[in-house]
Amino acid sequence: MTKYITMAKAVVNDRDKMQVLGNDVKNMVIMIMRILILIGVCYVILLPLIGMIVNSFSSNADAYDPMVFVIPKNPTLERYQLVIERMDYFSVMGRNLLYVAALTVIQLVISSMVGYGFARFNFPFKRLLFACVVIMIIIPAHTIMLPIYLTFREFDPLGLISLFTGTPMNLIGSTAPVFIMTMLGCGVRSGLYIYIFCQFFRGLPKEIEEAAFVDGAGVWYTYFRIMLVNAMPAVVTVTVFSFVWQFNDTFFGNLFLISDSTLISKKIASLQAMIANADRILEIPIQELYLNAGIVLVLLPIIIIYIVLQKYFIEGVERSGIVG
Amino acid sequence: MKKRRRLSLNQKRMLMGYIFILPWLIGFIYFYVRSIAMTIQLSFSELVMDILQGGYSLTAVGFENYRHAFLVHGSFNQILTTSILGIIIDIPMIIMFSLFMAMLLNRKFRGRALIRVVFFLPIIMASDAIAASLELSAQMMSGGITSTSTITENVTGAVNIDFFIDMFITLGIPFRAMSYVVGVVMRINAVIAASGVQIIIFLAALQAIPGSLYEVADIEGATGYETFWKVTFPLMMPHIITNIVYTVVDSFTRSYVVTLAYDTAFTSFNYGLSSVFSIVSTLITLLILFAVVAVIQKRTFYYT
Questions:
Q1: Torsions phi, psi for A90 (to 5 deg)
Q2: Which B residues 232-271 touch A at CB under 8 Å?
């Protein structure tokens, strides 16, 4: 005991040691604060997700049992069975993923092309046109929703379609409008992707292209086989963003009245009513369990994709030109 | 034989540039320029859809739609002001929160990879459809029997927040400041969910700050506080602008004005009025955006 007291006295009397000790304590406190904040925020983020997963597994008795906390007493897969059947899960989700994947590929090709054009070529009005890209990011899509709706209701670019069929085509209700808009670089947040690619290509050294040019590579070959390969961080970033935002997007789906057999988000919107009316499950807390199971099912594919790609995604975001 | 004019290399490159941006250029003119013009035209006219034939007819009505929106319509003014105010109130909170979080995440510590995965989950899960279905379900629940939402109730019911609020107010903290903080804490879910992309942008920017600047600050004997305000913060300013722009646009697309415009067009089929709502709200948002950016831009320091 006296040994410790003398040690402590030695520390207190020695100013250098005291300062070291003070720094240690300070660092310790800061570290604990940091851990607490991070855990707190993670908790806020994860809580709803965990809650939904728990709910989706719990049985009727568990839903009313106040003693049940986090782990259901009688876990059941009944929710998932019914929800998969009612949402027609596998076929709708398959179609939806295919649709989103196709759009993502188009987004990648078009926005990287346009970004490359802005980054590496000089042409008149370049600054003005790039300002238009920024305007496209800023102006919310809903400002132009009505004209777009009317345009696709009577789709007739330059009178070409009515020339052949006599009447303009009505594309509302199909997925064609989204594909057309994405192909023309005006899909869900296309402006942002063009911006990201442009910034990234600007940051790449010009020598690579010059070497390719001297070796006889054409412009398209350089773009596809050299620049795009070097822009992997930007490609991964845009892929993840584009996939997720396209998947979560309800604006175009609602505007063009795309049917719920390709959009799982429309199925989830009507799921609770469906469960209530078709299966006569009238207790609202029980309906909610089914709804939670449905939401978990909807989130599942994108969470899996995110977890697979997350390492590249976060590295890519840090290295790509998103910072501008 | 006619001699073909050869293009110089520069002209060829110029042409290539146009070919590369051509798809976007067509889309921009066809969907954006044309649509904005059409929206403005619609706001000055009354549109009647011909349901049997397809097609529609326009009759010019002058400022009638604008008059209706501001003077006759029951809730437009109110919804517009609350939406705009909500955006303005949210900006500082989201920016501060995401900068703070980005700085925490930028340090090296064990389990950083895992925590980052969790932090970017809100971007992944931000689905309007899911949020809407949950909201509907919650409405039905509160209209029906009060019962289990087991987990959330157990957790949130534990702390008596009023006690702490009273404590701070008796300590002399102004009520308005307090109610702002409390409001934010109550909506911490929304703030966290809305700041995913902003955290990413700040994080990327923090990584781009040259380490030599911190070394200099350290050698000169700056404290952590001084280093933040003299090194980190000035270098973050351009990205703060980027983030403000992103935040405003993102929260605007989710605000009630947009819902109102959508409902007016597709539920009550008043296309002219809906255009007015769109135009007015977009203009005001752009105005706020330019004002904020102009104010900050003057104080911004560009490193490069």
A1: -65, -45
A2: 238-239, 242, 245, 249, 252-253, 258, 261-262, 265, 271
Q: Which A-chain residues 223-242 have CB contacts (< 8 A) with chain B?
A: 223
d(CA A251, CA A265): 11
Considering only residues 53 to 82 of chain A, which have any Cβ-Cβ distance to chain B shorter than 8 Å? 54-55, 63-64, 66, 68-70
A248/B127 touch (CB, cutoff 8 Å), yes or no: yes
- Nearest Cβ partner for B282 among A136, A143, A153: A143
Residue boundaries of the structural domains of chain B: 74-144+188-298
How far A237 CA lies from chain B's nearest CA (Å)?
A: 11
pLDDT under 50 in chain A at which residues? 324
Answer whether A285 sits within 8 Å of B262, measured CB to CB.
Answer: no
DSSP string, B185-233: HHTHHHHHHHTHHHHHHHHHHHHHS-HHHHHHHHHTT--HHHHIIIIIH
Q: What is the ipTM of this complex?
A: 0.80
pLDDT at A101: 94
Residue B55 confidence class, pLDDT cut points 50, 70, 90: low
B259: its two tokens: 């819902």
User: Which residue of chain A is at minimal alpha-carbon distance from B279?
Assistant: A143
Q: What is the dihedral of CA A280, A286, A288, A292, to 10 degrees?
A: -110
pTM (global) more than 0.90: no
Q: Which of A116-120, A300-304, B119-123, B128-132 has the lowest mean pLDDT?
A: B128-132
Does B126 reach chain A within 8 Å, measured CB to CB? yes
From residue A312, alpha-carbon distances to A194, A254, B26, B126, B206 in Å are: 20, 32, 33, 21, 18
What does DSSP say about strands B45-49 and B56-60: parallel, antiparallel, or unpaired?
Answer: antiparallel
Nearest to A306 among B124, B150, B253 (CB): B124
Residue B146 to chain A, least CA–CA distance (Å): 9
Domain ranges of chain A: 2-64, 78-323
Closest CB to B118 among A42, A120, A142: A42
For chain A, say whether B84 makes contact (Cβ under 8 Å): no
Report the distance separating Cα B62 and Cα A263, nearest Å: 40
Mean pLDDT of B85-106: 87
DSSP notation for A257-299: T--TTT-HHHHHHHHHHHHHHHS----HHHHHHHHHHHHHHHH
B189-238 confidence digits (pLDDT tens): 778 888 888 888 888 888 878 888 899 998 998 888 899 998 888 888 88
Determine the pLDDT at residue A41. 87
A15-57 and B112-119 are packed helices; what angle lies between their axes, rounded to 10 degrees?
A: 50
Which CATH superfamily does the domain covering A78-323 fall into? MetI-like (1.10.3720.10)
The mean-pLDDT minimum among B80-84, B180-184, B267-271 falls in B180-184
CATH architecture entry for B74-144+188-298 = Orthogonal Bundle (1.10)
Q: Which residues of A touch B42 (CB under 8 A)?
A: 146-147
Q: How far apart are CA A16 and CA A23, in angstroms?
A: 11
Question: Is there a contact between B244 and B95 (Cβ–Cβ < 8 Å)?
Answer: yes
